[in-house]
Amino acid sequence: MPTVGLKRDVLFSILGRSYSEDEFNDLCFEFGLELDEVTSEKEMISKEQGTDKAEGASEVIIFKIDVPANRYDLLCVEGLTRGLLIFQQKLEAPIYRMIELPANSINQMIIHPSTAAVRPFAVAAILRDITFTQERYQSFIDLQDKLHQNIGRQRSIVAIGTHDLDTIQGPFHYEALPPKDICFKPLNHKKEYTAIELMELFSTDSHLKHYLHIIQDKPVYPIIKDCNNVVLSMPPIINGDHTKITLKTKNVFVECTATDLNKAKIVLDTIVCMFSQYCAAPYRVEGVKVVSPDGSYLMHPELPYRKEIVSPKEINKSIGISEDASSIASLLTRMCLPSVIIDNGQSLEVEIPPTRHDVLHACDIIEDVAIAFGYNNVNRTISDTNCVAEQFPVNKLTDLLREVIAAAGFTECLTFALCSREDVADKLGKNIKDIPAVHIANPKTLEFQVARTTLLPGILKTVACNKKMPLPLKLFEISDVILLDKTKDVGARNQRHMCAVYYNKVAGFEVIHGLFDRTMQVLEVPNNDYKFIPVDDAAFFPGQCADIMVRGQNIGKLGVLHPDVITKFDLNMPCSVFEIDIEPFL
Amino acid sequence: MKQKSLTYILIAINIYVNAVCEEAMAELSEKLLTILSERNEFDTLDLSIELQFDHQRLVGAVKSLQSLGDVITCEQRNSKQWELTDEGKEIAEKGSHEALIYESIPLEGINQNELLGRVPNGKVGFSKAMSLGWIQIDKAAKDGPRVTKKVEAIEDGVKEICQLVKNFQIDKITEQQKNECKKRKLISEVKIVSYFVKKGNDFKTSVSKQEIELTADMIASGSWKDKSFKPYNFNALGLPPASGHLHPLLKVRTQFRQIFLEMGFSEMPTNNYVESSFWNFDALFQPQQHPARDAHDTFFIAEPEEAHEFPMDYLEKVKTVHSIGGYGSQGYKYDWKLKEAAKNIMRTHTTGVSARMLYQLAQKEKFTPSKYFSIDRVFRNETLDATHLAEFHQIEGLVADYGLTLGNLMGYIEQFFKKYGIKKLRFKPAYNPYTEPSMEIFSYHEGLKKWVEVGNSGVFRPEMLLPMGLPKNVSVIAWGLSLERPTMIKYGISNIRELFGPKVNLQKIYDNPLCRLDK
Does the beta-carbon distance from A361 to B330 stay under 8 Å? Predict the structure, then answer.
């Protein structure tokens, strides 16, 4: 969930009143936001880098607000306050319009076929006669950053470039060139670099180095130039210095390049809807003709207004309320979804503005009705869905066995299903190649390389962490191990195991044997239905290990652990164990 | 069988020895009372010296007299006393090292090395004997240095001193001798706690021996009638029973399971930790570029890397609803790839199983309203810290029926939490890719005096349900929470690693109380 940091006083001045923290919290809560933290720049810096670093930093109070991940229109102070004011019926939702220019206008962006290999989509728009202030400028930059991080997935899907239009001249060309053929002065740098040099230069840049991998290994890099070959940007890495925006900039060229066209459109719509507020003609955006490699073209930004027809009856039924059509319409209007009654009140026509790309389906409209009505104002009732409950058999058996084993004096462990390759192989004297284990592709630590194929390592590690406890330690776990299994759709399956460990100054095999006998007794397996067949296993002391055969089926092993195993798990006392598959007893 | 009888014999011997000790103790106690009646008071340390009796045992007897009530009064005294070290004790018994050296020299003399070998601590003894002038050495002798006696007889002063110390006659040795012994580490000063004993108000000289426990023999013979019994010490702790214990987190799991069963929910088969991205994400209308599908958050699987079997009809419908929409939805308008859906992962939630269950439900000839639950492990590729583990338990409940409302969802959640002891709930709008409306569940925490998030909930999206083939007017409402968080709040655990995993403190498992969620 993205968090947006907004200056409290700016927020309150736009909202037209001040709020106590609790009041503001309640307002947020009703609207689906969360006031996460009240802080200041100074406090944030001192928390992250120490008090001495925070010296002289601003003490202006900042509200950090959690915003739902699909509400891109709430990621800046402009959008968030606009949403809240409309919610409170203090503002009417603005209408966003694109101003179309003649087809021969120089407001064009031509996409070259070479981009297909690296970043095939681009859209653009122009904010004409905008007035920046320091606050607005900062918010403009911050919104781009938030969009990059969220819907843009760290710029990999969508990257934004904004430029001072008065420094360049259309038509603009979006193409892809070999890195050696790209040369320009990057933003806030004094000299020109080739793209190869830039990648080198930025490899140590704490901010930009995270984006290099997106194009690094591609044969060609994306580049946007104007008609005079002035470089606007090399997306998704950096803009050119030439087109830099300042507080004095009046006309802004906004371009979004992407690997997903729909997301590029959403990002462009979001930026221009939010900031066209500061244009001489508010909420009006100048269009750019974007020409595809195949010669076809579209005007951007699309700023689509879509209409959905919904039934008030269905809405009432879905939420569990009974509001008439007009009150539902006004609830929706409060959520930036202007609605009109049609069909004599049988239906509502809901208009979805370009700021609400999150509305995909009627169910999203229903949610907005419920939010505006107030979730907590809905009557809480139980449906008459009558069912006879059933337990999952293997869980039922597990719970019954757990009780019996604990009553027999053993204490239950709960260990991780993921472990290291060593845990299931080397430490047990086995080769990982012989273990039918599921391997993790991207573990962050050695502790999570494979899914366990046996419960034993987890219990032995529990013993190792509890060596100071009085002896003997008698531990057990009944839980799932994971085994490769080609017959399953995913190629692996769980198997419910039971493992018990006795750890003491003497091996005490008879204790483990006794617990196993007891287990068989409660599972109603008579003595002569199970037997132990001596077997060699590297994990066990020679001559002290057996396969457990129940009615001819091998369900596991019992025995005394090999001293090498004991040492490898950082233990120093003898240890006897059994581990069985309990699924045959279902 | 052999081993068993040996154990019994050992136990029997132990009982016998204890009985003998009891007997001896009673005897000693009576003796002390007699002494007290003659002298009116004594100090345990002085008395032990006088009686040449072990001080500790004497103190033991005094303590047992004390336990009889006001028979005697005791006053604790701290004093210091010189005691022989182990070396000193040996000297008191066998003689000093130098005397032993002297004694070991035969008339004709002896090779030095041989001599040193004969006597423990030979080197010390040799140099002492030399400096005392008891022995002499001929370094020019033919077979190496030869030692002979220099005087005819010696007096072993050190041994005498040690014996004096042993017999508590420290006052008979001079300060110089004491220092000499201290330097040689033959004596050391120790702190002694002794008791100054006087008659108490109920003083008597005979202690009728009190029985500790009623035995079968006493009942059979009726002898209990003539005996007096020691009152039970109710201030002492009892003997802890030998016992096994269930894990605290799983005790809570049992209770949550119970709650669902009481509410008529059936348990889902969640024993599949490895899940395909298809069921874990795509089936839930979670787009393929969603951040949750990042390697950063999710464990992907290298072996078996991909799932190889899908219900193809259904998969096509899922593909369509993602890439171009349908069922009244705009879709996400992107290029949906089977390759991405086939990727195996460690499941990030149990909702993938819910999807499988709902899909199965949709395949039945006639839809049957159903209520399902599960409590099982889920996995996140997290770095471990006090509040995050790479695996934890998800609790999930869902109801599938015709015409369910958002109010129904809140109603079920309210009933569920009421059984858990939480009565004050409120709901906050939230975002979740597969539910709409979505609600975060908050409860008012009386201790923290604020609203805390306790779970998540929502109505499954039509884009998830309709491709499965569920009837259009069937809604599915669901909620979920983690098992660990409520357990940590309940038991006041701040570090999750103490609850789950090998770093658990077994003592805490042993001491864990009953799990009564509503208490």
Answer: yes
Return the DSSP state at A83.
H
ipTM metric:
0.90
pLDDT at B22: 63
pLDDT of the residue at B472: 92
Quickly state the pLDDT bin for A457 (edges 50, 70, 90).
very high
**Whole-Å CA distances, A531 to A509, A535, A578:** 16, 12, 14
Q: What is the DSSP letter of A385?
A: -
- pLDDT value for B1: 42
d(CA A148, CA A211): 11
End-to-end, the C-alpha distance of chain B in Å comes to 49
Q: What distance separates the 2 farthest-apart alpha carbons in chain A?
A: 95
How far A384 CA lies from chain B's nearest CA (Å)? 9
Among candidates B260, B329, B410 on the partner chain, residue whose Cβ is nearest the Cβ of A380 = B410
- Judge: A466–B370 Cβ closer than 8 Å, yes or no: no
| Amino acid B21: pLDDT | 63
Rounded CA-CA distance B29/B21 in Å is 12
Burial class (CB in 10 A: 0-12, 13-18, 19+), A41: middle
Global pTM reads 0.79
Residue B42's Cβ-count burial label (10 Å; 0-12, 13-18, 19+) is buried
Cα–Cα distance for residue pair A501/A410, rounded to 1 Å: 9
Which chain A residues touch B242 with a CB distance below 8 Å? Answer: 409
Count of A–B CB contacts within 8 Å? 298
Question: Which of B271, B306, B383 faces A496 most closely, judged by CB atoms?
Answer: B271
Give the C-alpha separation, A6 to A75, whole Å: 10
Q: Is B222 on the interface with A (CB under 8 A)?
A: no
Which tokens hold the place of B241? 């029973």
Closest residue in chain A to residue B307, using alpha carbons only: A490
